[in-house]
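INTERNAL AUDIT FORM
Audit reference: QA-55
Scope: verify that the stored structure record matches its stored sequence.
Auditor: D.O.
Record contents follow.
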Amino acid sequence: MSHEHHSHLPRNDYGKFIAILLTFCMLAVAGYALQHTISCFLLSWVIAYLLDPLLVRGEKRGIKRIYTLGLLYVLLGILAIFFMAFIVPAITISWNAFVRDLPTYIQKIKLLATDWKTRVPDLYGSEEINWLIEKATGKVDAAADKAGKWAYGFGTSIFFNLFNIVLSPILVFFMLYYKRSVKETISSWIPVHSRELILGIGEEVNSSIGGYLRGQVVISIIVAVMTIIALFIIDIPHPIFCGLFAGAASVLPFIGVIIATLPALFFAWFKYQSIEIFSQIGIAFAMIYFVEGYIIKPLVFKESMNLNPLVTIIMVMALGETLGFWGILLALPIASAIKITWGHVVNGDFKHH
């Protein structure tokens, strides 16, 4: 009987494991099918997360949440009008200029490949080099042929992003207004004997995620502005495009600094074709990321997440593959939440409850 009892336990464990695995698979499939809806929800959630501390301050001063929320939306409306009147036209002009110049860049790449091919001497290995050059040139031609499909796909994504931008303020309003009710409802679902522990872990996770998201937004904006100004001074083509790319790349840990320089180096090479301009861009980005790393980050991130670099890279790659930009942005907060929860598990806090 004892043998039968022990042999029955692994079956239950395997059954739970399979059930959990199937649940994750179904969630992944549903997430892929509803990627635009999830993207809109995540955008709204991040915005609500960033704005909530302002409402909390208003409540501490005795102002009702609905009044603070109304005032906040008025201020955001003014900023939105300014953004639409000045920032959007500048971004649109920069994007149109980039699209207009794209065929020129493709043609220059093909001419450069042809020039390299003629310069390859008739020596051992030259056939392999020529084959590689021909393959590279063919890839460029294929990229040019797919430009129309790419433009259509980009236009489709822009449409969904505009839909998200229009719908997000409504979702943000309800998320902020009903925050307390949602917290109380979720709290009531937690068993009484472990409610205090889980709510405490939730506060730790909330502090870590909130600090990271608010800090990362501030850093991305500062990096983008500094990059745009620096590239304007150096006279690099499409500085706004390069600046926005650098701001977005700053979300990536470790390799974001390198990736951020690529568009500026690309445009600089085709305009100047000199090593001197590379050195100027290198100095500019070195100064930007010195300021970011040693001045801005210590002020913005008062507490470090202290995550293992290998775990960080794996989380960014995995979530970036499944959720795209939002996966990259939320990879570190999710890793931090797992680390905090796992720390309590290792310490045996759940056993006492």
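Auditor finding: record pair retrieved intact. Confidence is low (pLDDT under 50) at residues 1-9.
Action required: none
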